[in-house]
Please model this.
Amino acid sequence: MTSSIQAVRGMNDILPQETPLWQFVEKTLAKVLSASGYQEIRLPIVEKTELFKRSVGESTDIVEKEMYTFADRNGDSLTLRPEGTAPCVRAGIEHGLLHNQTQRLWYTGPCFRHERPQKGRYRQFYQCGVEAFGFPGPEIDAELIQISAKILEKLGLKAHTTLELNSLGSTETRKQYAKALVDYLTPQHAQLDEDCQRRLTTNPLRILDSKNPDVQALLKNGPQLADFLDEVSREQFATLQQYLTAAGISFRINTHLVRGLDYYTNTVFEWVTEALGAQGAVCSGGRYDGLIEQLGGKSSPASGFAIGMERIILLLQQTDQPIAVKTPDIYFMSDHPAAFQRALILADQLRDAMPNHIVMLHCGGGNLKNQFKKADKSGAKLALIIGERELAEGKVTIKPLRDNTPQFDCTERELLQQIRKLEPTLYPG
Model:
């Protein structure tokens, strides 16, 4: 017997019983973002490797050890995208969308990182990214955070999350602080764990994000990023806080929030939850004013955020948010080929006339008793039957399945009218 083939580790199937949750999230995202004036852009999943080395940073964990990179037949180095911001910027530069313009864009789709698979962290994962270009002040940061809050609210998750803020200051600020941090931690190298020892020479700001309590204890007595902020960064961060307070969005300052990508400057933020254990960040973002120029475009301010779809789904499941699962409204059955032929035609006509209803046609034969069992199991509210008698008389039997209303016959011409008469009892309220 031939052995079966399993999915690649960390790349998961999303099964039919799970897709209603995904559809609910996707529709909510599209509705909120469209209402806020953001336009969808669709991006390829494969990009030139250099795009991520120049944007994400060669010393980041993503580029050093997580990217799926390969040489194509022409010898070009290509990479399955590990995140969406750099491809969105690349597309904006390539198609002339950014210079001396403002753009509000969003996208969804899979990203890929070779990480250790665990709950909430997969090798193929899905993100919704939201990017705003050409807006220099904290107003756009406030809008993006407000939109992220609205998304969480519409999903029923806002009460389960907390907004954290920080400012990284300018690129120069980051460099000055990174040097001070290295100077402080180098004499205490032996007290750092292996991961932080590596980051000390490659990406020192990521040490702030360490979950090791011993490292956090060391950092308390070290230099603080807030003390290195330039005046412009301080003012912008203070103004942002004023805007959020005025909008009724509560937050807490987390001075160790740095984000894992090199392109961030000034404001960074995360929505975090305690309901998912270590994978607590469900939405993260911030400013990346230097990235467009870094990727070959004209200098332009930029800001954005990304939502981890799997973590949102996990949080919905963890918090038992009520999600309406669509079941068929009508189950159409027949008991021989000539009757099926009429049912096939009538079911299609009903779908055209009632586009918001689900009409499921029984296929595969079998007696009506077994078909009724399948109709009941499907959750349908009505069964429509064409048997030998109905076919001979040009009629259809209508049988309500969820109450004690007796079944009755009607002509094919009357079918739609009779179904609509029953709707108030099928969908009370």
